[in-house]
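To the wet lab folks,

You asked to see what we're planning to order before we commit. Fair enough. Below is the target structure as tokens, and below that is the sequence we designed to fit it. If anything looks off to you, flag it before the synthesis order goes out.
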């Protein structure tokens, strides 16, 4: 086990999904104590993942909460802080897609994606920022997307949310730069997950052909970058957007 994040308390939203699992595993492997937030996954699946972590000797707890709601995000942070004393690292990873062209997108489909993908970043960051400022230390890492940088057909809601995360990251970084708190964003391209596994082969072939590296990202490649940014020694990096997309967007 590594020691880069030894005894640091990390709250990860959307921690039981594909990328979230890889993020939490990599943080745990470097010594972090994990607060795993989830919502849409089955309770049994979340509990089994927790058992898997504890079998490996990692320290972790589960927290079911809808972080697209301000009151639940605040309650989540309060519960984690009560259990572990503080939150050192916040990974805003919760996200969904509801893809429709603008003509066919309902206001509810817009609101849902904005709420889960963007508003949750504000709610959770706002809930932890006070304690981070009091201690003079914190790492906030927001998961954006290449879609927030270049757009994508049928994803105006998702693109708007992920672009909003980039603006949010830069603005909050300015507010906290002298306070020992860094705020950065990761913008993944296409990542090999259960979601992308469902894409038809002919469509996936076209996607892979458009990526200079010639393949999808592994979740671990996203997670390793997050470990780097969460490190106490990465204190001179703030307000940045790290693109991990195989050259798909430069």
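Sequence we intend to order:
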């Amino acid at each position: 086990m590594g020691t880069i994040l030894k005894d640091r308390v990390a709250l990860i939203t959307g921690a039981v999904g594909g990328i979230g699992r890889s993020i939490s595993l990599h943080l745990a492997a470097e010594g972090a104590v994990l607060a795993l937030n989830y919502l849409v996954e089955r309770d049994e699946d979340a509990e089994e993942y927790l058992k898997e972590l504890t079998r490996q000797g990692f320290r972790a707890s589960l927290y079911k909460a809808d972080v697209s709601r301000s009151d639940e995000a605040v309650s989540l942070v309060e519960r984690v802080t009560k259990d572990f004393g503080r939150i050192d690292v916040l990974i805003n990873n919760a996200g969904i897609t509801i893809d429709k062209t603008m003509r066919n997108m309902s206001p509810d489909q817009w609101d849902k994606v904005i709420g889960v993908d963007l508003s949750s970043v504000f709610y959770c960051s706002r809930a932890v920022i006070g304690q981070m400022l009091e201690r003079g230390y914190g790492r906030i890492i927001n998961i954006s997307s290449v879609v927030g940088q270049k757009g994508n057909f049928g994803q105006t809601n998702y693109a708007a949310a992920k672009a909003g995360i980039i603006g949010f990251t830069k603005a909050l970084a300015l507010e906290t730069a002298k306070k020992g708190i860094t705020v950065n964003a990761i913008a993944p391209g296409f990542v090999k997950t259960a979601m992308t596994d469902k894409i038809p082969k002919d469509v996936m072939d076209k996607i892979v052909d458009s990526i200079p590296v010639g393949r999808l990202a592994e979740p671990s490649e996203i997670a390793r970058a997050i470990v780097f940014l969460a490190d106490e020694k990465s204190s001179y990096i703030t307000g940045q957007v790290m693109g991990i997309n195989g050259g798909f967007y430069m």
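Structural context that might help your review: DSSP finds nine helices and seven strands in the chain. The chain has one domain: 9-244.

Thanks,
Computational group
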